[in-house]
From TrEMBL:
Keywords: Signal. It comes from Lentzea indica. Residues 29-303 form the DUF8094 domain. Residues 1-23 form the signal peptide. Pfam families: DUF8094. This is DUF8094 domain-containing protein. It comes from the Bacteria.
Amino acid sequence: MFRLFPALLLLVAGCGAAHQAVATEQPASPVLSNSAAAEVVTAYDRGNNELNAALNATGLAGIETEPLRTSSDAWLRITKTRGQTVPLITSGDPRFIVPSGAQWFVASSNRVRGGVPSPRPVYTVFTKSDGGKWLAAYSLTPLDDAPPPAVNAASAATAVTDFADLLVQPESVGKAVLDHYTAGLAGQDDFARSAALDDQLANGYAVGLDVLRSKGRTLQRSLEPASHPVYAVRTTDGGVLAFTAATVVDVIKGASVTFDASSNEAALPGGQRTANQFRVTRLQTYLTYIPTKSSGSQAKVLAFTDTPVSVR
């Protein structure tokens, strides 16, 4: 965006003519170049594959930060308990959303896992640590196309920290999502129907409830008051793409509760256990398009992940 400064009139002695000088403000530049961002992605892939090969959760602090680090730690523990290995992961055709004036950026790439390409691009948020190292904070695969980011003449996106004009507050996405599928609010709340929210998350929760009930068990899911970092970038229509997370807790009760041997919940604590109650803490992350209040549009959950991080 250009801003015109008031004209400066200079009177030149002896001619009576006025000369006008106009200065313009240069557009803010991205926090780093695309080539530098590509190097960050390559370094992350290399470090990630090394840690995965060794199932080394301790080393995650060198390549990831919250909330992704917590999720990766849980998956490595689950993989280790099962005696499995993690396939080689690479990122191809990376593209970038790089804001100005912010120490983070988004990379979208066609990820190949064990030779199998992902059906859609994976969006990864990288943030700069206090020590100057770029760490991955979120990684999600949208099931629907994400609206394009707004960029200035220098190709810099806009990082958003003031959410007053948005239909849904990013830090409240977790609660709004939970209410959507536990209270059956589809078509009644601020969310448009989406494959991630309705076909996967909501339907998966409903199926899980039915399975537990058939076994004489109950499930109570609640939101834990935990805060997680939020990253939001402005879209061309004035809304935002928001990366957020929430911690939910499942309390499962029954006369004899045992997780299926092949489940993540059984592998996480190191093997099958039986009790009359289990408390499962889950980390959920979301990529959500949130419009402005005045737009008349609805928010849309484009992607989510769900990871059990503790079972007791």
